[in-house]
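tl;dr need the bound structure. longer version: we got a ligand (iron/sulfur cluster) that a collaborator sent over and nobodys looked at where it sits. i said id run it. heres the input, straight from their email, havent touched it
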Amino acid sequence: MDVRAQISMIFHLDKCIGCHTCSIACKNIWTDRKGAEYMWWNNVETKPGTGYPTKWEDQDIYQGGWEKKNGTIGLRGAGKKKGLLNIFHNPNLPVIDDYYEPFTYKYLDLIESPAMDDQPTARPVSLITGKPIDIKMGPNWDDDLSGTPDYARKDPNLHDLSPVEQEAMFQLERMAFFYLPRICNHCLNPACVAGCPSGAIYKRGEDGVVLINQKVCRAWRMCVTACPYKKSYYNWHTGKSEKCILCYPRLEAGYAPACMHSCVGRIRYLGVILYDADRIESTANTDTGNLVDKQLDLLLDPFDPGVIEAAKENGIPDSTIKAAQYSPSYKFIKEWGLALPLHPEFRTLPMLFYVPPLLPVMASLSHQDTAQGEKMDPIAKFWNDNWLYDTSTEDLWGTIEQARFPLKYMANLFSAGDEEKIKTVLKKLWAVRIHRRNVTVGDIAPEKVERALREAGLDAPTADAIYKLTSLAKFDERFVIPPAHREQAIEMLEFTGDTKGSIGFGFKEKAERGL
Amino acid sequence: MQNLFNTLNNFFLIGLPYIALTVFLVGSIWRYRSTKFKVSSLSSQFLEGRQLFWGSVPFHMGVLFLFFGHLIAFVIPRGVLAWNSHPVRLIVLEVTAFIFGIALLIGLANLVYRRVTNPRIAVVTSRMDYFLLTLLLVQVVTGLWVAYNFRWGSSWFSSVLTPYLWSIFALQPDLTAVSALPWVVKLHIVLAYLIVLLIPFTRLMHFLVVPLDYIWRPYQQVIWYWSRKEVRKAWTPWSLQRPKNN
Ligand code: SF4
Ligand code: SF4
């Protein structure tokens, strides 16, 4: 057992309101520079939708991630052979138009315009060429467009849904969507690291943050292809790749990353997870059906004396072990089994986990659905405009099965197609709601509450704990950041404000492009 | 007149190679050590990918073949001569090399065209890039010209130029054979020195950092600042320890 510590994140999708505050916080700190304008280390997508870059999930186009062939895994579009052979021209590299051409407006034209009959306009200009452009794309171009043929219907996750199921999703009255905020997953088996020919990308042993050494990157741009989440970006100006750094300078100082700190919906949690590095390879190599289970198996119980012993052996500080014991991530992932990785089938073992959204599911009941309506409690019918929040149907889990979002769709996102897993999670979320409704409103028969909790595999105290961490948690409960140990934190020792806005973190050299 | 000619010969064929090599060696080491951030292949594929294929791939293939061709003739001239002793083999070699030369020219032409016509690429093009492209273009054209007009290059390179180049490296420059060569050949040689000289000041730097160690490196890289075995021991002397990776 090779115990290591990893900073792991939870995004609770039911709570995301799609405000993009996280994206802006990140942009203002890290990517407001020439060459980085188009990068959104944190972006928020509407699902169903094509995302950013367009259709990033479709690996037939982008060839990202690992694939299993003849018993071993290899990088799909990069790796030693493909990476070196394609070094002169990478056939799988997305180009700027797959993201969008960054733009600004000529605001000065508004101010300096002479008096005219017409209103002056601020034309959009490209941030690359400086010439006027017609804006064709943006990082959240399909925001809230849940049913559109150009975006929602081209969502790669719909590929194995039957036409009937798809049509059902896009019926005007049933249309639903949710937000999917994404950052780099700081994977355990990172494809970007493996794809980089220069060896510029590495995972920090102490906390698992994946970073690109800007001085070693040589613009072979294979990480962009290799990362299946398209979270490594090429800076066209400096000729270097860049990616989310999980705000490690903030982490080391005890602050939450900027996107998490600023999150309006408070959907984000961050904490330490202990894992067994010896099993990374065999886990990434397992059959698709077992991927999620095996990945969760990697994560170790921080209370187990054996694990603690091994962690100490490996030089993990006591404070980090303690942080792992209080980690909200551990609770969501392991104790409660509520969080799942995004696209585990890419086999990078992502360390950002999502609590799948329940609300769109619940909105599946409509006034017209008399069959369901008859089963409902009078209290649920009380709001007779719509029966959206029916919490007491006769058959407890019926609404989950008839969800507006087919379970299959959620499964394609969060469990490599395993619908049972999604159902288990949704049942738990649902049971917590039933339980809490009983506590606060008290209109549900106790037997029914008990049955709901039992069938979901929860008990009342656990349900309360879930409720508390989900809805009431304060900053210190959402972000349990291990003390930095200044004596070990090297990046922290450099003064880094100097080059803000020019080159990125920790540079004293000027951000000049090579010759 | 003869004197001037001699001086020029001495400068370009004896002085320049030494200057070029020194500048190349010192300059590259300086550049790598002091401005490491700027060492990059500066790929522009992200801004334009399709045209680049028809430029970059034939260009690099051509360069690689011809560079190693020249290198082999320099290192094992006798081997090349022995190979060329059979006319069929000689022609196969010459024709292959010429085809790669043409590929190089086509690639280069495409690259120049792309840089000049694509407004996005123009943004990431420096004056040095234009200069370098022009230089390379002239170099390739003279190379093809020489190969076509003064046959058979692979043979006379091995017997005339190789001794001259060796004499440079042996610090006993001997111009007797080269000074009689036609001016195009000399131009080709001089431009080659110039290109070597320019390496530290151009994007050509990237060929010095070709990531060959990728072949034997393990895929995953984890970096620990401190030794994991020592970090928790009370007697670890921090003042004496240096963290890795910085
Ligand atoms: S999400 Fe992509 S960039 Fe981030 S660690 Fe994983 S493979 Fe690398
Ligand atoms: S700030 Fe939070 S709630 Fe707002 S879009 Fe980002 S993740 Fe969602």
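gonna send this back to them w/ a short note. Chain B touches chain A through 58 residues (CB under 8 Å).
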